[in-house]
From TrEMBL:
Presence of keyword Transferase: yes
GO molecular function terms attached to this record: acyltransferase activity, transferring groups other than amino-acyl groups
Cross-referenced InterPro entries: Acyl_CoA_acyltransferase, GNAT_dom
Signal peptide: none
Protein name: Acetyltransferase
Highest taxon of the lineage: Bacteria
UniProt entry keywords in alphabetical sequence: Transferase
UniProt xrefs under Pfam families: Acetyltransf_1
Domain N-acetyltransferase: 150-292
UniProt xrefs under PROSITE patterns: GNAT
Amino acid sequence: MAITLQTATVASLDEFAEAVAACQHEGGPVQLHPGDLGWNWSLGADELARSLRGWRRDDEILAVGMVDAPTGLIRMAIAPTVDHDDTFAEQLVADLSDPERGVLPAGAGSVEARFGTAFRDLLSRSGWEVDESWTPLRRELTTPVEDYGLRIEIVDEHSAQLRVAVHQASFGTQKFTLERWHAMAASSPYQRARCLLGYDRDGEAVAAATVWSAGQGRPGLIEPLGAHPDHRGHGHGRAITVAAAAALQEMGSSSVTVCTPSSNIGGVAAYVSAGFEQLPDSTDFRRPNPQP
């Protein structure tokens, strides 16, 4: 069967999101998640569609990549059925290596390829170099989640502005706006997601997180999570992390996953303190410079 490469359209975004959800499987690495698509949907459906590439065989999307144009990085989700598929891997590497194929631009290019045994092996053998290191973390959800010590509210349109304010304070940026929250909340991945606000004993909103399910029995994702800087030092970051795990457990997720740069030692430690298991680091791959 021929393998075809396509760029998403606004009309095909739901199909792409479902294909990414189907790539999630328990025991596998932390790949591009439908929650990543949902979060980026906040920038607008047109922009998200332009960033997505899909590889089909027999009309089934078996791999999806989301390209961050400013950095030249593509984040991948690959179906378990093509883990050891050499032919599929050859097509992926060929499309990523040649800027004329419209995936990665000329110049700098890198790929977040955490899954695909044949794919990762071929990248290495084709001269792609080790790039940034990431630390995945996972918490299984087969046992009850402990009490997290915050009052948790599920965000709706009435509390969305407060959720946006906590995010802006947590990350020191005004980029995430109420308009962007509404765009995200209207996306198909958000139909299996929740925004959470955590309140302290004084009724102050002190932390927020968005949790994304990929469907029953599949790993869920936290993206993003933050604690208000005016209320740090009281364990609210850990508390909202545990609350996020509890929400995903209630939604039927098999586990909760996050991935953070390996250089973020404090972030890794914070997730470990919230019951996450630190998994072996994984590296991106950087495309080799063309020979003169």
